[in-house]
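Pipeline run #58 for the internal structure catalog. This entry was flagged by the ingest filter as a single-chain record with no existing model, so it goes straight to prediction. Upstream metadata was stripped on purpose; only the residue string is passed forward. Reviewer on rotation: M.T. Logging verbosity set to normal.
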Amino acid sequence: MKLPHLLFTFVITILLIGCSAAPAAQTKEPRSFKNTVVSLTFDDGDADNYQVRDILAENNLRATFYVISGFTGTAGYMTADQLRGLHQDGNEIGGHTLSHTKLSAVRGADLKREICQDRLNLLAYNFDVTSFAYPYGYYDEKSKQTAIECGYNNARIVSSGPAVIPPVDAYALPAMPYIVSDTRFAKMTRYVTQVEDAGGGWSIFVFHHVCDGCDQFSVSLETFSKFAQWLGEQQKTGLVVKTVGEAVGGEVKPGVAP
């Protein structure tokens, strides 16, 4: 075989190998949302929750803060002024009982006091109080009926999510699994995208402490910030973020004495 022909064959072989090794160009379609609503909820009114105020505002988000009104202003809990600041930003302030009592363990006047007096305390701050969360997620028919009688439009539990809008039972709103200290950003986003992929629904997130591993039921500020930024971006592609009260709707009812 002549040398020029050998060179020609060698060059062609190299070019073919190069072409086959080159990765194919990939175009990733941006995700869009059509049927998914997200609600961010924070239980207890812990003082460290106030750190997310600016993060929510920066990403055009509003959350629901379920407050134990009997603890407001005490060590480890937000003050009335901090709650007012959150409310002024458009966040929702909801009830979480007077003293974080397991409601299935109390009855009669004690049950009504835990729920009704808690709501009265929050109404006194001029908050539009329509949403309630059962402490620890425990409830029964009696506590559910008491939440209705005390003037709440809805009540959230802590499992069996996602929910749907309109809800099957507004006084037993199911939530996504607890966000705990080892819940990663990727898992939080999957809770949203999987709902959309399944046809849509309502993803209610439950947060407690905002800190770096200070408690089992906590989320780091860095992780929450990343998630909030992601949610803010997805709102541009159809994702809807609402407070629980906005999602359920209904007028603010008068307070009821215990």
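catalog note: Confidence is low (pLDDT under 50) at residues 1-27.
catalog note: The first strand starts at residue 36 and ends at 44.
status: ready for reviewer M.T.
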